[in-house]
Specification:
four-stranded mixed β-sheet; 5 helices; alpha/beta
């Protein structure tokens, strides 16, 4: 993954992903084993396709932003996706705000629509999250996204 700090940022609350983790679980929703499983799946997919995916969990987003704006700012700040293809995807989960977003780069949008992202959130992620099964919801969502994206 090619994550780079942006020169300018609209918000100062953008988390710093200095280790360029593809699963950055600041809200501690996943066990170490679950993080490793998601990381391996994402890295294998990136090696096969060069498409870049990151999962970010936070306790809450800045009060003056909605989760889509926050996700866009993080995606831009971290440099998710290649410059040439803009083929990034960020799943953001805000634990206490109870919000989920899937942000896609312009290249990714050609394959995965906002509507499809909404369906995945509503039909896969939210039902699992209501059962406190965050890993299951994200794992199945990634499977669905990767099928659409491949």
């Amino acid at each position: 993954m090619n994550c780079k700090e942006a020169k300018t940022s609209l918000i100062t609350d953008t988390p710093k992903n200095l280790n360029e983790n593809v699963v950055y679980d600041t809200a501690e929703l996943f066990s170490k084993r679950q993080q490793d499983s998601l990381t391996n799946k994402i890295i294998l997919f990136e090696q096969e396709t060069i498409n870049q995916t990151v999962i970010l969990t936070v306790d809450s987003i800045p009060k003056h932003m909605n989760i889509m704006e926050f996700g866009k700012e993080v995606s831009n700040s971290w440099g998710i996706g290649t410059m040439e293809k803009d083929n990034g995807l960020l799943i953001t989960i805000s634990k206490y705000d109870r919000k989920i977003a899937i942000n896609t780069g312009l290249g990714t949008e050609k394959t995965i629509s906002d509507y499809e992202c909404k369906i995945i959130i509503d039909s896969i992620m939210i039902p699992k999250f209501k059962e406190n099964k965050y890993y299951d919801g994200v794992n199945k969502a990634i499977d669905s996204l990767f099928l659409l994206w491949n």
